[in-house]
UniProtKB/TrEMBL annotation:
<keyword id="KW-0472">Membrane</keyword>
<feature type="transmembrane region" description="Helical">
    <location>
        <begin position="33"/>
        <end position="58"/>
    </location>
</feature>
<feature type="transmembrane region" description="Helical">
    <location>
        <begin position="109"/>
        <end position="130"/>
    </location>
</feature>
<feature type="transmembrane region" description="Helical">
    <location>
        <begin position="150"/>
        <end position="168"/>
    </location>
</feature>
<keyword id="KW-0813">Transport</keyword>
<keyword id="KW-0812">Transmembrane</keyword>
<dbReference type="GO" id="GO:0005886">
    <property type="term" value="C:plasma membrane"/>
</dbReference>
<feature type="transmembrane region" description="Helical">
    <location>
        <begin position="70"/>
        <end position="88"/>
    </location>
</feature>
<dbReference type="InterPro" id="IPR007387">
    <property type="entry name" value="TRAP_DctQ"/>
</dbReference>
<dbReference type="InterPro" id="IPR055348">
    <property type="entry name" value="DctQ"/>
</dbReference>
<comment type="similarity">
    <text>Belongs to the TRAP transporter small permease family.</text>
</comment>
<keyword id="KW-0997">Cell inner membrane</keyword>
<keyword id="KW-1133">Transmembrane helix</keyword>
<dbReference type="Pfam" id="PF04290">
    <property type="entry name" value="DctQ"/>
</dbReference>
<dbReference type="GO" id="GO:0015740">
    <property type="term" value="P:C4-dicarboxylate transport"/>
</dbReference>
<feature type="domain" description="Tripartite ATP-independent periplasmic transporters DctQ component">
    <location>
        <begin position="46"/>
        <end position="175"/>
    </location>
</feature>
<keyword id="KW-1003">Cell membrane</keyword>
Length: 178
């Protein structure tokens, strides 16, 4: 084999990294789509369920217990998916009073520490939600007769998505030149 030739099936490190980066962009695209679309659909569904409840109760004098339960269920989904959406956009409330007073050379390391602590907390929340899903598998909701596991699934998906967005932020901060 000549000096410039490669072995068959050889993939360079840079080619492998480009493939992984492409896969991560595709994963992130679908994650964004699911999170944003899911949050909007859950919110619209919650509003419709509340509207049905109001009309049924006041116009027809017939309360619908499933509408109230559905609205609570969809509210949980909307909150956790929207929280992930806010994490993606960097829209969570932050108190920057101390950070802004620090020298620029200290701000980047402090941001990394804060994002790492938040990521650890999100990992703990994700793990706790998986535990709750396992323990609530046999329980069903009263009116809808839906397994409570789906209730906790919102927390698992939301915390996992937030974790992904925070890890992406950590990687981006590490790649920045000083």
């Amino acid at each position: 084999m000549n000096a410039g030739q490669r072995c068959p099936g050889y993939t360079s490190v840079s080619e492998t990294l480009k493939e992984h980066e492409s896969m991560m962009k595709t994963f992130k695209h679908y994650l964004d789509y699911i999170i944003e679309g899911g949050a909007v659909l859950a919110f619209i569904g919650m509003c419709l369920a509340i509207l049905i409840q109001v009309f049924a109760r006041y116009l027809f004098q017939y309360p619908t217990p499933w509408a109230e339960e559905l609205s609570r269920f969809l509210n949980v989904w909307a909150v956790f998916l929207a929280a992930a959406w806010a994490a993606k956009k960097g829209s969570h409330i932050t108190i920057r009073a101390i950070l802004d007073r620090l020298p620029a050379s200290w701000q980047r390391p402090l941001i990394l520490v804060i994002d790492t602590v938040v990521s650890i907390l999100l990992l703990a929340i994700f793990w706790g939600s998986i535990t709750m899903m396992r323990s609530s598998y046999t329980m069903s909701s009263t009116a809808l007769h839906i397994r409570m596991t789906y209730f906790y699934l919102a927390l698992a998906i939301g915390s996992f998505a937030m974790l992904c967005y925070y890890l992406e932020g950590i990687i981006s901060t590490l790649k920045q030149k000083r």
